[in-house]
Amino acid sequence: MKTKKDNKNKTRTHTPLKKEVIQVRLDPKLKFSADIAARVQRRKISSFVQWAIARTLKTCKLEDGEMVLNVVHEVWSVNEHERFINLAIKYPSLLNFEEEKMWKCIKDESNLCIKGLVGDQVVDVDMEKLDKKWDAIKLKADQS
Fold it and tell me: pTM for this one?
């Protein structure tokens, strides 16, 4: 935790932002290229990769032309299960295989947490019930 004095000599505490760690496989030439580009910008390679991703997101679009950043703003939640449900309801085609299995578990046991259906399309979920069942749903999907 970093501390900083403000203009009234009071100490303020700043909590560093939590960062996610990912592993990425790069071919040697691409890794070397990223390393050189990072040096040019006087960054660590991790900072360069983060900058490159953020820059790419400004122009990345779905097949229908919608900006990826718009999708992120629409589905983001600090809660994993809420984020998942928002993505599954609004953009089911973007689910990966593991997420499709979780979504199937939720839909198969609709009495657990589904509040709204239009035909066979889920439109609303009881987030409190889902929160309580989330770990069990993930485990069941993992085992299927």
Answer: 0.73
